[in-house]
Structure of Ubiquitin-like modifier-activating enzyme 5:
Amino acid sequence: MQTLTDINPDTAIESYTMNITTLEGFDSFKQSLSDPKTGASRVNLVLSCVDNYEARITINQVCLELQQDWMESGVSEDAVSGHIQLLVPGETACFQCVPPLVVASGIDERTLRREGVCAASLPTTMGITAGLLAQNALKYMLHFGSVSPYVGYVALKDFFPTMDIKPNPSCINSLCCEAQKAAAARHNSPEAVAAREAAAAAEAAAAAEPLHASNEWGIEMVAENEEQSAAPSGQQAGGTSLGESSAQNGAQGEDTKGKQTQSGGAPGIGSDVKVDDLMAQLSALNQGS
Ligand SMILES: [Zn+2]
């Protein structure tokens, strides 16, 4: 605690030492997060950095009771992969929505631990996972970027899989099911529907607007046939735009070429010849034959 205060003296740190998986621990933990007057949560976000399933279940339960968003983190037993997960009551899966295989098969977690053998530990994997957790906590609280509901880290392959984990409507935790119903009601409320429609309309209006509303340089788009008939001489009095004049210079060049190839009496395909004129000439030829 002294170390943390030394690193950043502007932070206010409260420390609690307890085993949150005991009955008293559960109460003390919940109390530490609650406003003494209202009983509601007094924190913005809970970061979970525990190393066992029971402790995660405890945090899940307390956060569901307080309607508190939290982030879970973990590193695998072999220490070469990690994950972080965002849990928003009712909106994303809670920790019990999708139980791990060990729990789903009814295996006691303690039997998996071999006596006297410590799980592998690699400070770099721990550091990267902790860094990802801190990074996403900042993004979440300061509202920048996007926070994936689940980010994995597979160290051996430099792979960061992300996943969207939807809540399970038949979750074994009844508080989670209630939170899901409340979230659905929020999403379907007239205000929420109206807000979504307004956002869609604003998006459509923005898409319909010209891409560059202010045209500082007076650049215009001109259809090819228009530009040729408008100023065949390549000179236009006043207000000539850059695009137009260069297009006209090009047209003049074409024009000369067209005249040069006008041998043998065939009509030249100069660019100053209108398509309509060509069509008229063609139909005259057809009629004559
Ligand atoms: Zn759940």
In short: The domain at 2-189 is CATH 3.40.50.720 (Rossmann fold).
